[in-house]
Amino acid sequence: MRPADVLRFAAGSATGYPLRTFLMVLAMSIGVAAVVMLTALGDGARRYVVNEFSSLGSNLVIVLPGRSETGGFNPANAITGTPRDLTVADAQAIARAPSVLRTAPLTIGTSEASYGGKLRDATVVGTTADYFLIRGLTVAQGRILPAGDTGLSSSVAILGAKVREELFGAEPAVGRMIRVGDRRYRIIGVMAQSGQGLGMNADEVIVLPVSAAQAMFNTNTLFRILVEAKGREAILTAKDEAAAIIKARHDNEEDVTVITQDAVLATFDRILGVLTYGVAGIAGISLAVAGILVMNVMLVAVTQRTGEIGLMKALGAPGHTIRNAFLTEAALLSAAGAVLGYLIGEGGAFALRLMFPTLPAYAPAWAVIAALGTALVTGLLFGVMPANRAARMDPVQALAKR
Amino acid sequence: MALIELSAIERVFTLGDSEVHALHALDLAIDAGEYVAIMGPSGSGKSTLLNLLGLLDHPNAGTYRLEGRDVTTLSAEEQARVRRERIGFVFQSFHLVPRLTAAENVALPMMLAGIAPAERGERVAKALADYGLTDRAGHRPDQLSGGQRQRVAIARATIMRPAMILADEPTGNLDRATGEDVMELLEGLNASGVTLIVVTHDPVLGQRARRRVMMEDGSKVEDTGAR
Across the interface, do A313 and B91 touch by the CB < 8 Å criterion? Predict the structure, then answer.
């Protein structure tokens, strides 16, 4: 039998029983669509988180006060209590390390801001001019904090876009005085709209010089020190240098945690990557179920067409021809299901993107290939048994059944 | 040399604990071009004999020589080839593939043999014209009358130009007039040199054949053409 004839014959038998074919294609397509859609969701979440972290700035090393260590209860902890403060001087010291480009001390709190009778709670960020450079923030009006100024004397503030809009409306803000807490600050700039930045919305903050913020919150310690390394390859040395400098300054005790953005990113990437594999695996189960359904349906087909198989044998079809015809039919049905499922899955991913525009829900290429491949392989694999049964059928008995 | 030579054929079926001798010590020789009716009551072994002749079944003992070649020892693949090229089947219930058109049903053996589509088309058109089915070429079996179905089946059985046609109650599902037409068709083929072997329990049908083989309990009890 010619390959083209086998294909045409198998396609003819598939379309000859529309309900059976429809059900099998549906089962297969649901399996494939599940894989495509769920991996799109998982991978979308992964990409979303990675993007969010990248927007924090590049070549970033973060110094946190306190040491996170596993190892159970240490009696020393009970006596020494809190770690040493992380200070502005620490930040300035790290800035002098060879692999470090610049550092920005960061202190954060909430306070009340008022202007012209309007009152608003706002997140107050105390930092230096370098913070804007590290995070790549720009001002829409005015200017950023004056460089190098960490002294108490400068009572200036930069408003987030939303804070400005709510307190000033259409009025110009730059140059006005605003009350934050119990002190007044001159507004020197308004930040450009930037949107979400992983938990902290840059549009809803008021940026003050670090010393002013520390005075406001009556604290000497910092929330974080952001360190920008001189390049991507310098990140690890910058991390080590920062840790060494803090250790030297803190009585030779490592009481800070230094993390790189890459490490955080890699961790999230890994976690969410595993999650994607997980959902792909769960969706894969539905493919296996579809495979069993393929077998079931093909077995029914063999029984249904017993007379036809007997006839084919009487007409001189050897066993392998009959096996090929049934295998081709199983493969055709699987392929149709795979293609349909792929389209449904892509449609579902598209719908997800419409519903959650921030989520880049695109199915990864590996998942698409794996889903289509698995669908074809399961279809063929589960088609082998019914096809063999057809091929081995006794022609006399097959012809007698009608 | 005889077309068909059966010698000492035994065919035993096991039904539960008991053994049934469907064929027992059967010898039969049929020459090319003969018209043979195999007759007998049901259970006499005539259908088993036809299945053996058509290589659909295997004897438990004995030899079957077709055109001088021992076909019982051939592989399944080679037996399929012999069926394809030398034997045409006509069944009582026609056995047409319901989803294929008349033309496609007739073309089926050629498709299985791997003959090029162009040649298939030509031969099918000629066969359909010979059997008066040209205007029925695109119809599926359920759109054909019983007589037309059996004519499609005969066209299919002869399309590979076989040496013999094995017909199992070819008129069993047809009314008398249509059955008459079908028999004339088959006898016409026999007149052109094809060996025709008809299995029937209908004595009227059997009387038409030049040679009659009566079967009973798996053995030949009468053979009008025995040599």
Answer: no
